[in-house]
Amino acid sequence: MSPGSRCCLHLLLLLLGVLGAPALGDPGPLEDVVIDRYYIPKICLREAQMGDFIRYHYNGTFKDGKKFDSSYDRGATVAGVVGVGRLITGMDRGLQGMCVNERRHLIVPPHLGYGSIGVAGLIPPDATLYFDVVMLDIWNKNDKLQITTLSKPERCNRTVENSDFVRYHYNGTLLDGTPFDSSYSKGSTYDTYVGTGWLIKGMDQGLLGMCAGEKRSIIIPPFLAYGEKGYGTVIPPQASLVFSVLLVDFHNPKDGVFLEHLEVPETCKRRAVTGDFIRYHYNGTLMDGTLFDSSYSRNETYNTYIGKGYIIPGMDQGLQGVCVGEHRRVVIPPHLAYGENGAGDKIPGSAVLIFDVHVIDFHNPADPVEIETVFRPEGCNVTTRHRDFVRYHYNCSLLDGTRLFSSHDYEKPQEVTLGANKVIEGLNSGLLDMCAGERRVLIVPPHLGHGESGARGVPGSAVLRFEVELISMEEGVPEGYLFIWHGEPPANLYEQMDLNKDGGIPAEEFSNFIKTQVAEGKGRLMPSSDPEKVIADMFQNQDRNQDGKITPEELKLKSDEDQEKIHEEL
Asked: Which residues are the signal sequence here (predicted)?
């Protein structure tokens, strides 16, 4: 039937319906079916046409209201082909042009019903039939899948293909809107492979080409769904299905880790490799954007070795080759993450994970101090050595630029005796072999810094960056010594110290003697910002009975004491 003739038929049926309406109580002889479209849905995507398969409910009565048949009473809809003679002629005509969910009153005259014969025991001869019909479904064997994209993410790097594993939410309804199933009511996604026969054909086709986060409406004709058999009690035979689908994520079992380099520093002197210890911040989300974990929320980095199996395999791979300061997105398929079981109540089974990572620092347990000389004065002949006393300025920060400490915050430079265990090992090493006026940048790994525990203001396992400038240095003395002679000590040392010859050397007498030796260049004190304290410590060491004076028996050179200890050990 052409569109023009179909339109004329509809107009004729409408005209007959309008003209016949007042006569519903007593129509008299009828030439054709009387149609009363008493409910027409606002949206009518399709009208029943000759040759369409339809499903509908109806009540059939006589003029006096007595019921002779009802699909409702049988608990099953009627399914058939309209306009091809499989129904009584009046019903064939009366159903054409109906929309899904449309309701009609039909008055079928005898010659378009069961005529002068009727149906024995059910419909008398020459009976006019009254039908109250609601259309539930319309489809045609030439129909194809109807896909409507409801929303789609701006970014879509990849779409679903055959053999992909998908996780999606859905609401399933019949064409008239009757719900039959929903993943939301179960509280979990539907997880399956696409294109491998696990799904009805229409869903297999309807999911192809979707992006993670995309929403689609998929209308599936019965021959691509459950066909003539239907499914249980919820999907009738020959039912078209409507699925509202939200694709949560998907992957392929052959997928590896996908990397997206969001921001890479212009200078990257070194990239992380297996065995390195790394500190990084991250946000972990599912493909639909649901946040499942974040180091930022805990206000501390995640610290671990890479390539050693301490973290999920996908992250072990995804962190290879990162630079300090890099921002990287790591997309991990479930077989390289938490697999079919998921983790806890936040990571579902078979979930693709997305980590947005910011690398704070990394190091290797075998790393030495990295030294970069920024400036070295010309004619530098004297450099710092072990036990030297040095004054220096410094700025200390993390590798991400976070400022920690600075000597410039105080009134004077930092002072320390190198090798006296007063500063971290890495800084001590970095201050050796420097000239006064030299400037360096030191990169100190945590095993030469503050270790796994960190220190006040310093995170555990942090790599530290020092900018140091050596202000001055003083030659030191060997470890364990507070004073050394530049030559041989006087043979009659005690007599020279005991200025008043009273057989006892008090603190003042001892101090004056030591200061004189230093002034005359005969010896030197251990370098310190407080020489008086060094001399006081020397006196206390010699005043062995702590009576305030040194006797001839008490006075001993450090070298003699060391020799005595050797003999005792022998």
From this structure: 1-25
